[in-house]
Amino acid sequence: MGLRKKGTKNPPVLSQEFILQNHADLVSCVGMFFVLGLMFEGTAEVSIVFLTLQHSVVVPAEELAAGSKTLYHYGVKDLATVFFYMLVVIIIHATIQEYVLDKISRRMQFTKAKQNKFNESGQFSVFYIVSCIWGTIILMSENCLSDPTLLWRTHSHTMMTFQMKFFYISQLAYWFHGFPELYFQRIRKQDIPSQLIYIGLHLFHITGAYLLYLNHLGLLLLVLHYFVELISHLCDVFYFSDEKYQKGVSLWTIVFVLGRLTTLVVSLVTVGLHLVVSHSRDGDTDSISGNVNVLAAEIAVLSSSCTIQAYITWTLLTVWLQRWLEDSNLQASSLKKKKPMIKGRSSRKGTENGVETANRVDAPPKRKEKTS
């Protein structure tokens, strides 16, 4: 089915314009090949690698507090699963764009610049809402909120539950889909470097938490980070819809600062306690289990966490400084437009274009020369 409305002119098949207009249809056809592969015995084993989670381990129920019998490791086959769900994310992205954001943009009659910002904030808002709700449900179901020691206890981090692994696979799929979307959405060349940095930082930290078995810590930090970003993009959506919400947009800075501080505190406390617990036990047994107990790795986790917080804070300051300069320039230009009107009125009372005339009241009258 078509996810985007076609133009009046049909572009040539497989041309650049054709791919941009029909990229969701093309991607859905690729995804259907993997789904149809389940129907045949020869291709079912390959299709399962793309559609379902791999690297499962059957554990006796009496050894697990949660009572689950299947846990998961990570492995190379996860790349195939991430690729398939990246295709799914591209289709969902195009569906939201056409049936929700494009209709709102046409109704509000945004300019091209505002429309691009509105589309970006709208897409991120949907993603952050789903991720925050989903991540909170996982934290509650795995008792991370009632028992915070799960964040640094070493023995529970060597394997993942189904919902934990599927959450990370979905997160990786979403951020990887950002690379082809730079082409599909026709992002300007000057905006591509900042977009690549933004996507790359998220992929780096999510992949690090996934590979280093810091699943619960990474999930908690992601929920905190996504909540702050959600407030930011929702404020942008309201601001683009009506500029009278400009004063309300500044209120989210309080949430931003609190979110950054909470993220740093949780990272420091969790990694510090993890170091204490891991080094109080035999280092060899922990390293064999695949857990993170090396001092260099712990310092790298703290450094990366502090780096991302510093980068996001610097980006916020840059955006707010740019907005402040734009507002000050608008005020200055409006004042310049009012000054000529004031000077024009004062010329009627003895001045012309700001220069005094000779017919002022206090000017001495000129004497007439006598003619002989």
From TrEMBL:
GO CC, one annotated term: endoplasmic reticulum membrane
Stretches with biased composition (Basic and acidic residues): 363-372
Origin superkingdom: Eukaryota
Listed GO biological process terms: protein insertion into ER membrane; SRP-dependent cotranslational protein targeting to membrane, translocation
UniProt keyword terms in alphabetical order: Membrane, Protein transport, Translocation, Transmembrane, Transmembrane helix, Transport
Segments traversing the membrane: 20-40, 82-101, 122-141, 166-184, 196-213, 219-239, 251-275, 295-321
Coiled coil: none
Domain TLC, chain residue ranges per copy: 116-327
Family to which this protein belongs: Belongs to the TRAM family.
UniProt name for this protein: Translocating chain-associated membrane protein
Name of encoding gene: TRAM1L1
